[in-house]
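Ketoacyl-ACP synthase III, Flavobacterium pectinovorum. Tokens?
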Amino acid sequence: MATFSVKDIAIKGISCCVPKDVERNIDLDILTQEEIQKFIEVTGVEERRIATKEICTSDLCCEAAEKLIKDLNWQKEEIEILVFVSQTGDYILPVSASILQDRLGLSTNCIAFDVPLGCSGYVYGLSILTSMMKTTGIKKGLLLAGDTISKIISKTDKSTLPLFGDAGSATALEFSDGAEFSFDLGSDGSGYKTIIVPDGGSRNRINNDSLQIQTIEKGIERTSCDLVLDGMDVFSFGITQGPKTVNKLIADFKIDKDQVDYFVFHQANMMMNKMIAKKLKLPAEKVPYSLKNFGNTSSATIPLTIVSELKEAILNKPSNIIMCGFGVGLSWGTMLAKDCKIESLELIEL
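Tokens:
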């Protein structure tokens, strides 16, 4: 696993945007009432925000970015790098980051590129953005992270439909003397089939069979263009790798765990996350959750949890925050934002 630190770059603000439409798990007809109650008990997910056909991930991130830029009173021409972390871009090509650079009215001198990661994507995105800003001398940058996973999920798959929601986020990063990030990143591609959309890429192009509905088991029907998630393998990976990467970060950078104000994990599901927290012996008050109202929003779960659950606790207050993402890839990323003083935390709807 790669561990490294980046100094003199800080998070100045985070804005998240969720769709207005709410889908309650209790209203789903692909599950019995008994199954629904069991699902909610295990995952903690009661409702999710679902994007309409017209709304893409880039739209949610664009709205979040516009709100954040306005709240921070930034000048758009000062933003010199934009990174878009998502598995649900507008097109196979071009990258959505280039389109967002134009939509946001940023300078043509702005670096813009996509990172197609999910669960660990927010931490990876921060590591890339902070590193590039540090080495190039760029003073201001934007990390846009989010997904509309509902667009790649079968409506007749009870194993995934009730779990995932849609959201987009924007995080503003700025040069700040004395600020510091510490990272631990890793990947294990031997588990790439654990979370996968089999068809639609260059390996398996869409063909006549791709859109044929397959019955996997009772209550689980999907095509080869829909998301496949091996729940048991994901659970095993999460409860093993989650604590391992957090402990490695703490050990390598000699972090006093008691001095960490909050541990914000990727919102996979409640049972998994609580087991990770238990293994790490973390106080419940230091581990926030946003699963109840938003579900698993992929690369947006960490920023969404921060703005929805921690605004009153950390806004304009220096805080030590460990963030940890793990999942698709398989991959993981954990980071510490030291003495992080965030000036803007907002949640809006589209």
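The chain has one domain: 1-350.
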